[in-house]
Amino acid sequence: MPPRLDDVDLTQALSRKEEERRLEAAQLRLLTLRLTLGGQIGGGGLGPPVCVLFEGWDASGKGGAIRRLTAPLDPRHVRVASFGAPTTDEKRHHFLLRFSPVLPGWGGMAVLDRTWYGRVLVERVEGFATDEQWQRAYEEIVAHERTLAAEGMILVKFWLHISEEEQLARFERRRDDPLKSWKLTDEDWRNRSRRADYEAAVEDMLERTDHPAGRWQLVAGESKRFARVQVLETTIAVVEAGMRERGIEPPP
Known about the structure:
Layout: H1 16-37, E1 50-56, H2 62-70, E2 79-82, E3 109-113, H3 122-125, H4 131-150, E4 154-161, H5 164-176, H6 186-193, H7 195-209, E5 216-220, H8 224-245
Parallel strand pairs: 1-3, 1-4, 2-3, 4-5
């Protein structure tokens, strides 16, 4: 059964000491896996590509989680790409096309901050896509991900979840911090005012695009410490399982 937002226990938290201990262990393990898949250690052959997708509420902690995920990795071995609204030229093509240049090949890894799921989230809610376009996008996305997986790619898909109350508190802290106020826009406030519409879109996305080759991982983001550890440990678990499914035993 696909995950649902109500399944997420937002009370989960970690102490600073526990976060540091688990982050250190997870980052070392991820580095070992990354070097193995990149052919830098072990047998020397290239392993399957890894693509980590991040979606979530505004101010849910995606940036902080991505920084901890990539911190131990050599920047030559991982690509981080952020996606906003499509450009005028990008709108002339199929919505999936603009993501292709950043997808990893064998031995590579990419992290996408916002993804093709924008078609069934913001583009659906704000009317940037027609009903026909976003309704058929579910099947197009699943077919796309299954094709990538059939070619060997390991997909890790995250939705970072926080409550409406926690989001408001984070918005207000950003608004009042001169070094972070730039991160808060009028669009963020407008999107927040349509929380119910976005929740409906997220639930549909989880139900219709969770499949064996691309399972959704819901992250409890109320505690940033917990979320960062959960992202790292979940990524490791999915990558190790993906390696075994492809006949590759993860390093000890």
